[in-house]
Amino acid sequence: MGDYYNNDETSETYTTVGNVPNSCILDGCGYQLANTAPCHALRNILCPLDNVGLCSSVNDIFSHILALSSHMTQRFLFFIENLVLRDVNRHSEDLVAFSGCQPRSPMDCTDKSAFEDGPSSSSPEIHENRSMVVEEELLGNARFEVAKMYDNIRGVPFIFQGLTVPLLCLKLASKFAVACWRLSLSYIRCTQLQLSSIMSRVQRTLHGSSDDIGWLQCNPDMAPVEDGTSRFLEVLEAIRNGEHRLPNSFLYLLIPGLFSNHGPLYFVGTKRFFSKMGLTCHIAKIHSEASVEHNAWELKQYIEELYWGSGKRVMLLGHSKGGVDAAAALSMFWDDLKGKVAGLALVQSPYGGTPVASDILREGQIADKETRRIMELIICKLIKGDIRALEDLTYEKRKEFILKNKLPDEIPFISFHSEASIAPGVLATMTHIAHAELPWLPLLKFGSENLDELELPGGQVPVAIPLSAAMAVCALHLQLRYGEKSDGVVTCRDAEVPGSVVIRPDRKLDHAWMVYSSRKKNPSEPNASEMCEAILTLLVEIGVERNNREKGDCVDQS
Asked: Are 342 and 313 in contact (CB under 8 A)?
């Protein structure tokens, strides 16, 4: 680095780069001052240029160019050295400012004797010694790093010393370019992942329940069904002609479906019709918006109470989710219900599942979380129900439950399903679901031919909604999207229970027709009560035939 004089005055030291003499003004520590002797620096830069202009040979020109490059490299090192020196001075000033701090670094411990001298550890002399020790240590480290860098450069052959700075800049530029390229690739990968996620959600939404509808028929382990439509129509025609053959030896239990607690007239007409014939009929008082397993437990207790109270076996007829709840009770608690239940009829029940519930609660589709929150708000907050009541009707849950719980073979089963009408005239059909009592308001007598006749206090106002129109829209949607016939909620293939007798009527009936009466009644066609009587009559006949067949088999074996 050159000789220096350790005094307060600056000294001028001459260094040689190549064949060109250069002068640098150094301070007491041997380092160049940042802003002193600008004339010397200008002279050091211009001197090689003057020599280049005077040289005539190519070798001299090339030699002076290399000398100029080496000089620029050395000036760059001096600049780095000055930056390090500034950081050292700033660090020493900060250390003196924090006078209350104890020495913590290892270099402070090496000079412990300097701190032990003196009356107090917080005296100005000790702090000054501390700052001097730290400054000398940092100066030594800085000198070592700069010297190491300079030695590395000097270790390079002389002809390549002028290319060191450009190579460093090129290396820095290459690293920057690689970093930018990696960042661009990461953004591209992130965009690809987002696009693939969106595409998978769109495909899952559009695909819907195409692979799940009718999975019971595609499963080879499921028992085949038997068509009983012709016999059902014969029994229904006999009932229309006044032949009521439903025995009084059974107790008939009607099990309502989902949201039945909010429909006061659910199965009311059918129960009144059975009571007029002298039959014992009940409507199961269960929480229809509860889960399938919960309702199965309640039905098990309800059936046992009816059996022990009357001594009669129970014939079950479940509509919609009520049929699923009844089938779950028989499959889960058959050991307790054996001998107490004579048969089960599932009317428009989503035994295999329903695409309506699956399409609403399917995970991985577009707006799946938002849709689930809306359904939880409606079912849990407004209706005070359980979201599992709808989840248990999805294909995923039904597959899991059916494969785990088998229906008993000792009793007969009937599956009834229909197809909703999508004709434009259905849009004007109103369904009577409840009635409102307004005793304080005189009203016209509903159903009376004389419109001038007033009804006295105690009258009732029918509450009707376009439920058939909603079912027609849903049936049209399922037909256009999946190509499946349905009653608006349940597809025909998903309503067929394996091993049961299936009834497939030709008449267009929506999902709510079996339990609610329509404002438009056709006297030439059977009503919902007569339909239920025909279904139960056929169920009794199947049970009697099965018992006779089993007795005949026992006689043949004996």
From this structure: yes
pLDDT tens-digit profile of 500-541?
999 999 989 999 888 876 555 677 888 899 999 999 999 999
Count of CA atoms in the C-beta half-sphere (13 A) of 153: 22
Within a 13 Å sphere around the CA of 120, how many CA atoms are in the beta-carbon half?
Answer: 5
Report the distance separating Cα 380 and Cα 385, nearest Å: 5
The dihedral of CA 448, 454, 458, 462: what is its sign? Answer: positive
pLDDT in tens, 164-192: 667 767 777 887 788 888 888 888 999 99
* Token pair recorded at residue 50: 């003057």
Q: What is the bridge-based pairing of β-strands 341-347 and 501-503? A: unpaired
What would the 3-class secondary structure string for 467-503 be? HHHHHHHHHHHHHHHHCCCECCCCECHHHCCCCCEEE
Cα separation, 440 vs 354, whole angstroms: 45
Contacts of 76 (CB under 8 A, 6+ apart): 165
Helix (H) or strand (E) holding 431: strand 431-437
Encode burial over 221-258: b for 16+ CB neighbours within 10 A, e otherwise.
ebeebeebeebbeebbeebeeeeeebeeebbbbbbbbb
Cα separation, 468 vs 519, whole angstroms = 11
Amino acid, single-letter form, for residue 421: S
Q: Which range scores top for mean pLDDT: 48-62, 134-148, 266-280, 452-466?
A: 266-280
Would the pTM of this model clear 0.70, i.e. be above it? no
Distance CA(6)–CA(15), nearest Å, equals 18
C-alpha distances in Å from residue 455, one per residue of 396, 432, 449, 452: 53, 20, 13, 10
The single residue listed with the structure tokens 């860098």 is: 149
Residues present in the chain in total: 558
Q: Identify the three-state secondary structure at position 318.
A: strand
Q: Which helix (H) or strand (E) is 68 found in, with range?
A: helix 58-97
Q: What are phi and psi of 157, to 5 degrees?
A: -55, 150
Q: How far apart are CA 23 and CA 38, in angstroms?
A: 11
- In this structure, the number of other CB atoms found within 10 A of the CB of residue 398 comes to 24
Host H or E run for residue 436: strand 431-437
| CA-based torsion, 173, 174, 179, 182: positive or negative | positive
As a whole number of angstroms, the distance between CA 77 and CA 147 comes to 9
Q: Going edge to edge, which strands form the sheet with 517-518? A: 460-465, 431-437, 517-518
